[in-house]
Amino acid sequence: MPGTRFFPVRRSSPTTRLPWTKGCLTLPLLLLGACNTVVLNPAGDVALQQGNLVIFATVLMLVIVVPVIALVCLFAWRYRASNEEATYEPDWDHSTQLELLIWAAPLLIIICLGAVTWTATHLLDPYRPIERIAKGRPVAPNTKPLDVQVVALDWKWLFIYPEYGIATVNELAAPVDRPIRFRITASSVMNAFYVPDLAGMIYAMPSMETKLHAVINKKGNYAGFSSNYSGAGFSGMRFRFHGLDDAGFAAWVAKNKAAPLPLSRGNYLKLEKPSENTPVMRFAAVAPGLFDAVVNQCVRPGTTCMSDMMRHDAGDTAAMKHMPDKGNAQKPKPEEALTGGDAGEAPTKNPKDVQQRSNASPSNPTTL
């Protein structure tokens, strides 16, 4: 048209035309670069075996998943409507060889996966004492594990070391290459004790005791937390786990022994009250039998322990320390058959003597 000016259009290069392509590739790499795959690369042998089991199971399942996805894409491309060279067999419905392949491969993988997971589940049972420190390094005979008693409070972690007579709040430590035996419970609600570098999580439940055996193989400062939601202060229910050499662990024990406060039962009752984002606390001494009292819900003076209640229910009244007949063995009660006399009167011999609510009688019942 007269008076109209045309401006040249510059064709953009592929990079300029699709700037989002580079971003789509870069963003996942940046996100993955910030990830710490601690579950698959832990510092403890038990967690390492568990991570290897996850990798093995994933790879074994991918043996089926990857070919299936590839074949779906291949079939969709090869037998597309525009490909007239593909063989068209609308009446085909069966192939013995294909059926064997379809069913045999998954069946073999399921058998293999089941055998491996069944074996690993028993070998990595948290209640089972560990038999090796690392691969090719069995636990030396007569090795004494480090005993740690764990109490999940609202919302903090209490760790008691009965061997050393100390306790800490929100800080845990253990020497490298020494087996650890955890005894775990909770004061009120259920939590889950989890140190990803050490071993898998295990629940902490009130009035119950769970166990966990593990070992740390590398020095370091590792994260620990509760992996089960337990209320308002759950997000701050975290602690640090220190893997130390023998000298470092001895210094850590000495540091706790120099603390000014003991963990008496009275101090425990104060500590038990809910609090959020609690800092590290140290106790130089621990009241005897405190952990067992926490498990049995009898830390408070005058409270009957649950173990005593169960022993009393089993027939031993000597277990009830607060009952008048304590110390006296309970005599077994004679068991007699239940009779009608227990209900207030003897049963009638003749059913016709039973007073009926209507004119019906047992020999001539009324039907509804």
From TrEMBL:
<dbReference type="InterPro" id="IPR008972">
    <property type="entry name" value="Cupredoxin"/>
</dbReference>
<feature type="domain" description="Cytochrome oxidase subunit II transmembrane region profile">
    <location>
        <begin position="31"/>
        <end position="128"/>
    </location>
</feature>
<dbReference type="InterPro" id="IPR045187">
    <property type="entry name" value="CcO_II"/>
</dbReference>
<feature type="domain" description="Cytochrome oxidase subunit II copper A binding">
    <location>
        <begin position="143"/>
        <end position="255"/>
    </location>
</feature>
<dbReference type="InterPro" id="IPR036257">
    <property type="entry name" value="Cyt_c_oxidase_su2_TM_sf"/>
</dbReference>
<feature type="transmembrane region" description="Helical">
    <location>
        <begin position="53"/>
        <end position="77"/>
    </location>
</feature>
<keyword id="KW-0732">Signal</keyword>
<keyword id="KW-0564">Palmitate</keyword>
<keyword id="KW-0679">Respiratory chain</keyword>
<protein>
    <recommendedName>
        <fullName>Ubiquinol oxidase subunit 2</fullName>
    </recommendedName>
</protein>
<comment type="similarity">
    <text>Belongs to the cytochrome c oxidase subunit 2 family.</text>
</comment>
<feature type="region of interest" description="Disordered">
    <location>
        <begin position="318"/>
        <end position="368"/>
    </location>
</feature>
<dbReference type="InterPro" id="IPR006333">
    <property type="entry name" value="Cyt_o_ubiquinol_oxidase_su2"/>
</dbReference>
<dbReference type="InterPro" id="IPR011759">
    <property type="entry name" value="Cyt_c_oxidase_su2_TM_dom"/>
</dbReference>
<dbReference type="Pfam" id="PF00116">
    <property type="entry name" value="COX2"/>
</dbReference>
<dbReference type="InterPro" id="IPR010514">
    <property type="entry name" value="COX_ARM"/>
</dbReference>
<keyword id="KW-1133">Transmembrane helix</keyword>
<keyword id="KW-0560">Oxidoreductase</keyword>
<feature type="compositionally biased region" description="Polar residues">
    <location>
        <begin position="356"/>
        <end position="368"/>
    </location>
</feature>
<feature type="transmembrane region" description="Helical">
    <location>
        <begin position="98"/>
        <end position="120"/>
    </location>
</feature>
<keyword id="KW-0472">Membrane</keyword>
<keyword id="KW-0249">Electron transport</keyword>
<keyword id="KW-0813">Transport</keyword>
<dbReference type="InterPro" id="IPR034227">
    <property type="entry name" value="CuRO_UO_II"/>
</dbReference>
<keyword id="KW-0449">Lipoprotein</keyword>
<keyword id="KW-0812">Transmembrane</keyword>
<dbReference type="Pfam" id="PF06481">
    <property type="entry name" value="COX_ARM"/>
</dbReference>
<dbReference type="InterPro" id="IPR002429">
    <property type="entry name" value="CcO_II-like_C"/>
</dbReference>
<keyword id="KW-1003">Cell membrane</keyword>
